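Handout, section B. The chain below has 162 residues.
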Amino acid sequence: MLPLETLVTHVAWANRQLFASLRDVDSFESRSGADLILRVLDHVHVVSRIFQAHLQGVSHGHASTQSPVLPSLDELDHGSETIDRWYVETAVSMRPDELARPREVRFTDGKLVTMSAATMILHVVTHTTQHRGNVDAIMYQCGMPRRRDGFPEFLVSRASAT
């Protein structure tokens, strides 16, 4: 597996671990920190969708990196699984020349930058990983159970699955 494919596959796996942990929290949505966790996960999802649109060469239609109405945990879980699958399939299917081709990207704040498809995917990976760490810190502070979702655990899970 190529490095970019490995990274997006790890993100998809780690997100499944995170959402499983959150689903295991009794009365999650009424817990301290739940609203902030949902806001962070919504932000991650919206940014992933924005860059999906950039990679597809279509308008993303987002004026902000947050949804106008905060989705539920179930909605974010389903949306995360769907977009993660798309990124894995896209990273696997893109030819090296497609990954390297520069594209104009306009951020929601209006700034214009040139990025390759590989750089956009890498941005989504690092952005998701950073904010998953933020969610983990909130879970820790609020006494919620967490699962280990680091790269070593991912490698062990893949090795034990074969």
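Note. The radius of gyration is 16 Å. Compare this with the example in section A.
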